[in-house]
Amino acid sequence: MIVRSLASVIGTAAHVKGAAFESRRILLAADRLGYSLHDTICREGSEQRLEYKNHVETNYVIEGEGEVENALTGEVFPLGPGTVYVLDRHEPHILRARKGDMRIICVFTPALTGREVHDESGSYPAAD
């Protein structure tokens, strides 16, 4: 059994901050679950261009409002508390936090190690 709190992740190597986001990585590949679980904050007014070529990402918005744009089709979908969006086809996308910081619970498959850094396309490298 794994029991872990968000508070236990804050201030550790699993707590990653950038100008537009803050990712609190609660479960990672080392937990050997096949997926990783992240509590992510996207800063109000931020815009992030992302594309997960090697991972499927499921996102559940629990705070704030924004939108996600499919960069291939131009379709824009509003996001708010209770909304789920899944990047099941590795879509390049633009994530925008519009009203308040947007807090999102994210699940990555395969699991992230927690040491990944976005490349120039906004992707993470393939899992080892």
Automatic annotation (TrEMBL):
Entries under InterPro entries matching the protein: Ectoine_synth, RmlC-like_jellyroll, RmlC_Cupin_sf
Protein name: L-ectoine synthase
This protein's record includes keyword Lyase: yes
Pfam families hit by this protein: Ectoine_synth (PF06339)
Task performed by this protein: Catalyzes the circularization of gamma-N-acetyl-alpha,gamma-diaminobutyric acid (ADABA) to ectoine (1,4,5,6-tetrahydro-2-methyl-4-pyrimidine carboxylic acid), which is an excellent osmoprotectant.
EC number(s) stated in the UniProt entry for this protein: 4.2.1.108
Entry's Gene Ontology molecular function annotations: ectoine synthase activity
Example GO BP: ectoine biosynthetic process
Family recorded in the similarity comment: Belongs to the ectoine synthase family.
UniProt entry keywords in alphabetical sequence: Lyase
SUPFAM superfamilies: RmlC-like cupins
Catalysed reactions, semicolon-separated: (2S)-4-acetamido-2-aminobutanoate = L-ectoine + H2O
